[in-house]
Structures are given as C-alpha cells and as structure tokens.
Automatic annotation (TrEMBL):
GO terms for molecular function: heme binding; iron ion binding; monooxygenase activity; oxidoreductase activity, acting on paired donors, with incorporation or reduction of molecular oxygen. It is found in: Membrane. One of its GO terms (biological process) is lipid metabolic process. GO terms for cellular component: membrane. This is Cytochrome P450. It comes from the Eukaryota. InterPro entries: Cyt_P450, Cyt_P450_CS, Cyt_P450_E_grp-I, Cyt_P450_sf, Cytochrome_P450_Monooxygen. Keywords: Heme, Iron, Membrane, Metal-binding, Monooxygenase, Oxidoreductase, Transmembrane, Transmembrane helix. Its cofactor is heme. It comes from Paspalum notatum var. saurae. Belongs to the cytochrome P450 family. Heme binds at residue 491. SUPFAM superfamilies: Cytochrome P450 (SSF48264).
Length: 544
C-alpha cells in the first residue's frame, strides 16, 4: 500500500470505520447470549415450576386434595417414614397379600387420606391418581381422544420407540400392522419355539438337581427363579421374534439387558434436559449398544424383505409376520425400516420382563399355597401327562392353571400403574381437568380394592376366576381387572403372554415340586415392574 506523507493511507481511512464494529461485536454476542440464557431460564421456570403450580391451583379449585412429598418443602420425613414402614413390614400372614402399602406406599397413603381421586406431588408436578374402576375405564377407552400417553424422553427413544409411544394416526397404523402377528392362529404356530425354551430350562434345572445330589447326597436344591424366568422369557421372545435367526435375537436380548442396566444407573439424572447428549461413559455405551442393535436388526430385515420380494414364504416368527403384514398394508402407508426396528426392540421390552414377573410371582404364590400347586399339577398331568406334548389344545384345557395366572395378575400386577396426560380440557367424574394434567391409574390398588373385590381382596383365591374374568369381581358390574390395560391400547401381546406362561408353568409343574426357601424374603418392589426385590429363592425337588 502506498502512503502519502500527511495524508491518511487507505488502510488508515478504513480503520476508524471498522473499529466500532469490532468493539461492538463482543457486546452484541454477550447481549444475544444473555437473551438466549434468559429465554431458556424463563422456559425452564415455566415448565418446571410455574406451569405445575398453575395446574395444582386449578386442580385444588376443583376440590381435589392430596399430599406433597417435596423434599425442599420439608415433606421428606413423611416420604421417608412411609418408605421405611413399607420395607420393614413383618412377614405376611399366610394367605394374605397386602401388596399395595408395600409396593406403592405414597399413593396408598394419599388415597387413604384423600379418597379415590387424589393428588400426589413428587416434586412440583401434581399427579392425579384415579382409582375408581368406572373412571379408569373411561380414561383407557379414550372415546373422545382426550388423553395421550405422557411424553417419552430421549432415554426411552434410545431403548425402544414403537407402537406404545405413538399417538393418533401413527399409532393406529402401527397397531393395525402389528395386530395380525399376535393373532391366535399365528401364536399356535409359535408354540414349538415356546416349548423349546421351556425344555431347555427344565433340563438345566434337572442338571442342577443332579449336581446337588452328587455334592451332598440330598436331592433338593435352591434356585432363584427370578433370573431363571428372565432368561426363559428372553429366550422365548428371541425364538418367537426371530425364528431361524434366533442366535442374533439372543445377542440383541443380551445387549438390551445391558442397556436396561445402564438406564437404571442414569435414571435419576435423566430429567436434566439434554443429559443423554453428554459424552459420559455410560451415555456413550448406551448409544453404541443402540447402534449395534439397530445394525443387527437392519441386516435381518433387509434379508427377510429380499426373500419376501422373491416370493419366498415368510417364517412363522414375529418379524416375518410383521414384514408380511407391512407389505400387505404398503399401499395404505406401511411402516419404514426404522419403524420396524422400533417395534422389534419394543417386543423385547414389552414382552420379556412382564411375563417373567408373572411367572416368578406365580411360582412364589404356589409355594405359599401348596394346595393350589397340587391342584394345578394334577390338572396338567391329567390334561397332557408327564411326558406328552403340550400343544394348543392341551394348554386350552388347563382351567385351574388359567385361574391361578389371573389371580396372580390381579394380586401382583406386573405393571402396577399406567399413566395418561389430558390433551384437552375435559371433565371426568365431575372434575374439570385442564390440558396437561398427569393422571396415574394405579392398577394394583384397584385390584386390591375391597369395595370392588370383596373383603377377601387381599387373599389368594383363584376360584374367583372360575367363571372367567368378566364375572370375577362379582355382581353385574363390568370387570375391574386391568392387568393388561384396557380400551384401544390394551396389551397387544396378552394372548402371547398367557400362552407362554401356561406352557412354562405346565412344564415346571409336571417335572418339579417347589417350596419357599428359608432365604426368601417377601418384598414386591416396583422398579418400574413389580419385581421381587431380594430375588425369588425356592427349593426344587424332582418329581418321580
Ligand atoms: C404378563 C405379561 C404382560 C402384561 C401384564 C402386560 C401389560 C400391558 C399393559 C398394562 C399395557 C397397557 C399400557 C398402557 O395402557 O399404557 C400393555 C401394552 C402393550 N403390551 Fe403388554 N403386557 C404383557 C405382555 C406383553 C407381551 C408378551 C408383548 C409382546 C410381545 C406385549 C406388548 C405390548 C405392546 C406392544 C403394548 C402397547 C400397545 C399400544 O400402546 O397400543 N405385552 N401391556
């Protein structure tokens, strides 16, 4: 650049005009940042504090009352005391199953104090628990589209994202495509897969008994049936979902098991917005597993779709049936590959732990009620013999086993509660709810309600199901049995679960006798399914 002495150079001339901008730039950036921070803080305050308070005020104005368990508001001692009392309860008197105060102490307390529709605060957000069966039925039927499932966080999306998370048209489309895969005719064809998994378990237990006998000459041995049932139902769903690709299915199952363990580790931090995005070791591992599972499923789906296009018959497994149904619906808008992956992941989550919880409590209750164990075993031996094949006809003859399973589902409902959020302002049971209220339907409490089930509601009495579910709660009232939910979103896999449970129980009953081990301690704990907190130790004996 040429500069003439005494005159400012071009560079000098430019300098004064650009310098105010240069000086202002950091100020502008700081101002923008301050606005963004203030906006985020206002949004966070609105969602985390102001909005819940407004909802609480609106509910109280409607006459609803409740109990708050807000540690910061000095309510912690009450919550602590209830939780302590629930855990320190003495052993149950034989025949009685007072599960609710132990498994849901806070809601039990709120309902005892404030009635069947009451509010509970676990933090600033009010939850309304509704336990009048007629109102629960109205919420689940969702006739006017007033209710949605509560929002699903990023963690849940990582674990599974299928029909249970969708709403509106997307939910209806997925449900239409999935439903045929669970049709009874299709389930009948999956029975050999169920039988193979049960036979593996029985021979494993026989091996344990042989080893125990070799050790000290005494034949019985102790088994914790909780992990055993998890293994069984994981195996069943791997075979039923992926047929010949069963080994890949098992790999998915193992990966998902690890994912659930990791999810439990971070469960108490997940309400922090964006927490799952942080590059912590657990988060990175979670994402790696999600990508690995997706990779395996994508490969399987591509192979099966290719075979379908070539006109090859699908196999009788859930994935094959799902793809077949998807192809039939493709003209009216089928599911994308990502959707199919989401549904496959959901089958594990929805189907595995629920059924293992049911089978575990069934074995424990049959230990506590040996007369029913004998009656159920006699029935199995009469219906199918000690070594006969357990086919669909044989399983449908098992009346006592079915009654036992329903009674266990009532007393120890695997899903103790389900949730809904009001989507629009609406009225329910004479109370006007604004949009955005979280409703908790405590299925377990309803199943133990003496006003509904009679004074023996806490007793194990399978004979109440002798005339079917519809008449079990007595009188002409519609059934107050919600173990599989209700309305259009009722469990799509309930026939699958019941067939699997009948098969598993029948195979165990005809090979083994069982009683509670002295090391067992009774502690139903919702985490979030109702599992035995300290395991389910039983003493097994091989039947002659
Ligand atoms: C004892 C076993 C089971 C119990 C107690 C159970 C319970 C339930 C309940 C209560 C719901 C309704 C949730 C709500 O309304 O928010 C549900 C939904 C669902 N269940 Fe099950 N379930 C069991 C087994 C299974 C199995 C074996 C499968 C599949 C393999 C399955 C798949 C599903 C699916 C996909 C949904 C969502 C349905 C929808 O939103 O449209 N479940 N289950």
């Amino acid at each position: 650049m040429v500069s003439v002495p005494g005159r400012p150079s071009l560079g000098d001339a430019e300098a004064p005009s650009s310098s105010p901008w240069k000086a202002a730039a950091p100020l502008c950036a700081a101002a923008v940042l301050a606005v963004v921070v203030a906006w985020c803080a206002a949004r966070a305050a609105e969602w985390a504090w102001l909005r819940p308070r407004r909802l609480g005020r609106a509910l109280r104005a409607q006459g609803l009352r409740g109990t708050a368990y807000r540690p910061l508001a000095g309510d912690a001692p009450l919550a602590d005391r209830l939780a302590r009392e629930a855990r320190a309860r003495p052993p149950l008197p034989p025949g009685f199953h007072t599960v609710v105060p132990r498994a849901m102490p806070l809601f039990h307390h709120a309902m005892a104090e404030h009635g069947k529709t009451s509010i509970t605060w676990l933090g600033p957000t009010p939850r309304v628990s509704v336990s009048e069966p007629e109102l629960v039925r109205q919420v689940l039927s969702n006739k006017f589209g007033h209710f949605h499932k509560p929002g699903f966080g990023q963690l849940q999306r990582l674990l599974h994202y299928g029909v249970s998370s969708h709403e509106g048209d997307k939910w209806a489309r997925h449900r239409r495509i999935i439903k045929p895969a669970f049709h009874l005719d299709k389930l009948k064809r999956m029975l050999p897969a169920f039988a193979a998994s049960c036979a593996d378990m029985v021979s494993r237990w026989e091996g344990l008994l042989v080893a125990a006998a070799a050790d000290d000459g005494a034949a019985p041995c102790e088994v914790d049936v909780w992990p055993e049932m998890q293994r069984l139902t994981g195996d069943v769903i791997s075979r039923a979902a992926f047929g010949s690709s069963y080994l890949q299915g098992r790999r998915i199952f193992e990966l998902q098991e690890e994912q659930v363990r990791l999810a439990m580790l971070i469960a108490n931090k997940i309400h922090i917005p964006g927490y799952i995005m942080l590059p912590t070791r657990t988060n990175r591992r979670m994402k790696w597993i999600a990508a690995e599972i997706e990779g395996i499923l994508r490969g399987m789906i591509a192979k099966r779709e290719g075979a379908l296009r070539e006109g090859e018959a699908t196999s009788d497994d859930l994935l094959g049936l799902l793809l077949e149904s998807n192809m039939e619906h493709s003209s009216g808008g089928g599911m994308s590959t990502d959707d199919v992956i989401g549904e496959c992941k959901l089958f594990y989550f929805a189907g595995m732990e629920t059924t293992s919880v049911l089978l575990t409590w069934t074995i424990l209750l049959l230990c506590m009620h040996p007369d029913w164990q004998d009656r159920a075993r006699d029935e199995v031996l009469r219906a199918v013999g000690a070594a006969g094949t357990l086919d669909y006809d044989g399983l449908s003859r098992l009346r006592i086993v079915t009654m036992v399973l329903y009674e266990v589902l009532r007393l120890y409902s695997p899903l103790p509660s389900v949730h809904r959020r009001t989507y629009k302002p609406m009225e329910l049971g004479g109370v006007r709810y604004p949009a955005g209220v979280l409703l908790m339907l405590p299925l377990l409490c309803i199943h133990h309600d003496k006003g509904v089930w009679g004074p023996d509601a806490d007793e194990f009495r399978p004979e109440r199901f002798a005339d079917g579910v519809a008449r079990a709660s007595g009188g002409d009232a519609p059934p107050a049995f919600f173990a599989f939910g209700g309305g259009p979103r009722t469990c799509v896999g309930q026939s699958f679960a019941l067939l699997e449970a009948k098969m598993g129980l029948a195979m165990i009953l005809r090979s083994f006798a069982f009683e509670l081990s002295p090391s067992y301690s009774h502690a139903p704990f919702p985490a979030p399914l109702l599992r035995p907190e300290h395991g389910a130790q039983v003493i097994l004996r091989k039947l002659p």
